[in-house]
Amino acid sequence: MMKLNVLVLVFVVLISLLVGSQGGSLRKSFYKDSCEEAETIVKKVTEKHVANNPAVPARLLRMHFHDCFVRGCDGSVLLNSTNQNAEKDAVPNQTLLGFDVIDDIKAEVEKKCPGVVSCADILALAARDSVSYSFKKSMWEVLTGRRDGNVSVMSEALQNIPAPFFNFTQLKQNFATKGLTVHDLVVLSGGHTIGVGHCTGFNNRLYNFTGKGDQDPSLDKTYAQVLKSKCPPNDQTTTVPMDPGSALNFDSSYYGVVLKNEGLFTSDATLLTNDVAHRTVQELVEQSDFFTEFAQSMKRMGAIEVLTGTAGEIRNKCWAVNS
To answer: 64, 66, 183, 192: which one is catalytic?
Structure first.
């Protein structure tokens, strides 16, 4: 009996080693042996771009989010269209910016370690490093080992990226399909503390909320007038800050804005329509709590349906699959 137990234990250990050798999961310092300077290079190039343009953190954070919600965090949002329209061409992604930053980082990493570091990992790291720049410390941990997908379909972006007009039920279901909770939903919505929103994302709240030329009654009336002064009906190009007065500062002020009924999108305002979500919004006004929870939720989001081991590929260029 003892001999049988020993054999079983040896078999389990061997299977564990085999799975580990295939890189079957994300881990800390994945590139320590294959490209020791990888994360340093990503950080250096990212910070150069942020120093030149303070809008970069919001752009990369949004891009990372949009990537992970379609086919998981596999860098598919970075691919250009070829014989079919890619995710980039979907309406939610047509306003994405920052692809040049990712391409610049990839070029520098390739000079040092060709064919080793995935674009999916570069995007995840750059999103973290750009937001962390003003704090001079990492705001959340990014485990690495993602590989790049080789499929990018426009229709899948439309189906999977949560829309700004979603109500709470739709948002909850959308996040649940990605293995994320209501808590994650409220925490990750805090990403709206930086960046801008296009008038097209909330114009219906100002001019035609129920199809009768009315205004969303949940939107603060005074703030609605401010928005109307900036966004005339059918405006396709104007942007406004998602967190007024703090659009470049990564902080918890977004939650105070939501509580004042000044959340820009329906997806922001609807967080107050659910008791659990509403309480979470109130709790996250405390900045230290927000930072702690955001770090945990970002780690979970960054692990959605990742490709690891021998799945996918390591792209030579982030905008094209390898030939």
So the answer is: 66
Which residues face 27 on adjacent strands?
A: 144
Q: Is 66 a residue of the active site? A: yes
- How many other C-beta atoms are found inside a 10 Å radius of the C-beta of residue 15? 10
User: Where residue 21 falls among pLDDT bands split at 50, 70, 90?
Assistant: very low
The predicted model gives 164-168 an average pLDDT of 97
Distance of CA 223 to the CA centre of its chain: 28
So what's the pLDDT on residue 46?
98
Residue 316 pLDDT > 80, yes or no?
A: yes
Q: What is the pLDDT of residues 109-146, one digit of tens each?
A: 999 999 999 999 999 999 999 999 999 999 999 999 99
pTM of the entire predicted model = 0.91
In Å, what is the CA distance from 254 to each residue of 103, 161, 220, 241, 275? 31, 21, 15, 11, 18
- % of the chain surpassing 70 pLDDT: 93
| Domains 28-160 and 180-301 alike in fold | no
SS3 258: helix
State the Cα–Cα distance between residues 103 and 42, nearest whole angstrom: 11
What confidence tier does 12 reach under pLDDT thresholds 50, 70, 90?
Answer: very low
How is domain 28-160 classified at the CATH fold level? Peroxidase; domain 1 (1.10.520)
Domain 180-301, CATH class in plain words: mainly alpha
Coil, strand or helix: which one is 252?
Answer: coil
Sequence spans of domains, the chain: 28-160, 180-301
Which among 100, 123, 95, 94 has a CA at the least distance from the CA of 52?
A: 100
Rounded to the nearest 5°, which phi and psi values hold at 198?
Answer: -80, 145
| 313 vs 4, more confident | 313
Nearest-CA neighbor of 240 among 210, 268, 274?
268
Across the strands, what pairs with 320? 317
